């Protein structure tokens, strides 16, 4: 059995993200959480390939994802069909504000928690 998986959908920041670590919501900087996640025994998979459903890298990683993290400005839409492909999913996190990119009814039916972490995608 592998490590529990956290799946993140973030935008590609390119050279700017590589030069500026404060661009947290990018695939390059991964909200600054990779070390913490790995220290706690999780596998972190980060992609900017979230569309189209069902043929994206995001979709390919749903089957064993326990946690999904996305942002309001580059959201991966977690639809009922995507939730159905994620039998281990327990938690959906918005790094920022909002939950309109999650099918809340489907999450509720499955007992999947949906939370937002306001301000987590910025550095003052």
What does this protein look like?
This protein has one domain: 3-Layer(aba) Sandwich (Rossmann fold). The N and C termini lie far apart (40 Å). The chain is globular, with a radius of gyration of 14 Å. The chain has 124 residues and is α/β, with parallel strands linked by helices. Helix content is 23%, strand content 19%. The protein has helices at residues 14-19, 34-39, 57-60, 80-84, 104-110; strands spanning 5-9, 43-47, 65-70, 91-94, 113-116. Strands 2-1-3-4-5 form a five-stranded parallel β-sheet. Residues 34-123 form the D-isomer specific 2-hydroxyacid dehydrogenase catalytic domain. InterPro entries: D-isomer_2_OHA_DH_cat_dom. GO terms for molecular function: formate dehydrogenase (NAD+) activity; NAD binding; oxidoreductase activity, acting on the CH-OH group of donors, NAD or NADP as acceptor. This is Formate dehydrogenase.
Write the layout of secondary structure elements.
Blueprint: E1 5-9, H1 14-19, H2 34-39, E2 43-47, H3 57-60, E3 65-70, H4 80-84, E4 91-94, H5 104-110, E5 113-116
Parallel strand pairs: 1-2, 1-3, 3-4, 4-5
Provide key terms for this protein.
124 residues, alpha/beta, Rossmann fold, 5 helices, 5 strands, globular, NAD binding
């Amino acid at each position: 059995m592998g490590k529990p998986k956290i799946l993140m959908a973030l935008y590609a920041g390119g050279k700017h993200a590589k030069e500026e670590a404060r661009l947290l919501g990018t695939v390059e900087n991964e909200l600054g959480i990779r070390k913490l996640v790995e220290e706690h025994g999780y596998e972190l998979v980060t992609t900017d390939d979230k569309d189209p459903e069902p043929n994206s890298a995001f979709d390919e990683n749903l089957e064993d994802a326990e946690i999904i993290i996305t942002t309001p400005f580059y959201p991966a839409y977690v639809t009922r069909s995507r939730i159905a492909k994620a039998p281990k999913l327990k938690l959906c996190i918005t790094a920022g504000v909002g939950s309109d990119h999650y099918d809340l009814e489907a999450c509720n039916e499955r007992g999947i928690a949906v939370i937002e972490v306001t301000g987590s995608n910025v550095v003052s």
